[in-house]
Amino acid sequence: MEPLYEEYLANRGTIVKPYYWLSFSLDCSNCPYHIRTGEEARVPYTEFYQIFGFPYGPVYPQTKHLTFYELKTSSGSLVQKGHASSCTGNNTHPESMLFEMNGYFDSAVHNNNTIRHIILYSNNSPCNEANHCCIGKMYNFLITYPDVTVSIYFSQLYHTEPEFPASAWNREALRSLASLWPRVTLSPISGGIWYSLLNNFVSGVSGSTVFQPILTGRALADRHNAYEINAITGVKPYFTDVLPQTEENQNIRAQVALESYLNNKIIPGQSLQVTNGQPQPNLTPDLKVPVVFVLVPFRDLPPIHVGQSPHKPSYIVRHLNMPQMSFQETKDLRSPPMGMPVDGVEITEQFARSKEVDEKKKKKKGKK
To answer: Where is each CMP/dCMP-type deaminase domain found (predicted)?
Structure first.
């Protein structure tokens, strides 16, 4: 195997050229060392917030791609941690670099047969657009290494909305990748995973920052991501919802903010307004107000499954526990629309026969 990359020893890990011909570029601040391992993989807190949108919520517009990763054994022991950043000069995504044939992951697994599980934590879900083919490369990697499983966590979906020309292609590719479940899982970053990222991949973080509450804007985005990836793939994601669910008013507040998030892609500091034909009380939550704090142990990750080499499926979509509907949707289902009369009728066999006899009598009278 002739590797595409070059790796150099650094003070706290290694730095890697994902393509050996890369050189320093004024067009890309990370060139040429886009892959960093060990403690070299840590990024400043400000960069983590700007790219991943934690703790306030998504930051728009977002042009950078960053993927943290962990390589683990079948027992869960860590072999290596690192990160890969996108190259703006060559327009290359992190997943494309990592899963390239003869690339870094290909070489790592080829030379270390104890690696059985790869965990990715990305600010964007993987795409399959023509310039990147991230999902296609991941698919080929999984076929080459049938004993390896992959868990993908993301902070926002990438180009899956209808306004993006490649959205249909990306959604179909995500469905195809999710069809490899349980070897592959696609889930939003949520709950305790945020704190694990702060602890393992972010530098200059104090104890109070590591355990700060997840704020409403971030929690709403995580919930939206869980709903959307379920709707796209038909597979229920691993997701920890930290929003309060107990009181009706809290559900209304969450619904208001979520609807505004979907319509306007809210950012911290934006005001939200909802009208239903008449003035509404101010139900808008402050996105910087912490929700009920729930720290979920990172050991609650889904189990690692290792199966036989699968043939590439044409389409397998598993529907597992469809996502919960919003508070307003469930409320609408419980009561009929105003002004619409509703009659309850119990249909029995005797009722059906008597109805049939009445219809025959009416026909006979019509003939006379």
So the answer is: 61-177
